[in-house]
Structure to design on (201 residues):
């Protein structure tokens, strides 16, 4: 059996306790859509999602569309059907269960539409990456952030920083921003204030 099949079966087992998403009508505004990549990549090599799932992207659901930050498009509105089709493996839907303001959250997310994608993952509101959009926009009725930033790490399971990230930042004349405050979609999926509810298969 191929490594891909083993990874896919593993993900299926981990997600089987979640109710299958029967219809997009089950989604609510501000639900989070976590995308699982069973093949893995440089991001999943250094981050860890709920139940060990290899989560590499997250978007915000609102009225049949997903507000997301993606390379080459920046922060944009994507129809939910297109989002599902693009992320063909597995999507886990999470619902924020701690008190927050949906109105303020969506308003702040919409204000970010049109911003470029932050491929350097540096905290700077002139450009935004996917989990940074979530971390910055989810606020309570007082405007306080629901998700505190974390110290980012680019270390793999051995404790080493993979050559990919060292080489990547070197091209921009930078050191790897290890420990810089930020976020990642995998870590967000493990937050106690998010309840994982549905899966897409």
């Amino acid at each position: 059996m191929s490594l891909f099949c083993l990874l896919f079966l593993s993900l299926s087992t981990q997600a089987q306790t979640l109710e299958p998403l029967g219809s997009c009508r089950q989604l609510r505004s501000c639900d989070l859509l976590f995308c699982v990549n069973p093949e893995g990549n440089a991001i999943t090599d250094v981050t860890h999602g709920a139940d060990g799932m290899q989560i590499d992207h997250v978007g915000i659901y609102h009225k049949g569309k997903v507000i997301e930050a993606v390379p080459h498009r920046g922060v944009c509105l994507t129809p939910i059907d297109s989002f599902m089709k693009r992320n063909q493996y597995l999507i886990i839907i999470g619902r924020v269960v701690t008190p927050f303001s949906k109105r303020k959250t969506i308003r702040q997310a919409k204000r970010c539409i049109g911003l470029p994608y932050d491929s350097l993952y540096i905290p700077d509101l002139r450009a935004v990456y996917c989990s940074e959009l979530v971390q910055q926009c989810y606020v309570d009725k007082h405007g306080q952030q629901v998700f505190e930033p974390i110290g980012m790490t680019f270390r793999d399971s051995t404790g080493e920083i993979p050559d990919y990230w060292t080489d990547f930042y070197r091209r921009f004349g930078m050191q790897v921003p290890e420990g810089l405050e930020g976020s990642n979609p995998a870590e967000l999926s493990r937050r106690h204030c998010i309840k994982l509810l549905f899966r897409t298969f």
Observations:
- The CA atoms of residues 45 and 75 lie 24 Å apart.
- The mean pLDDT is 90.
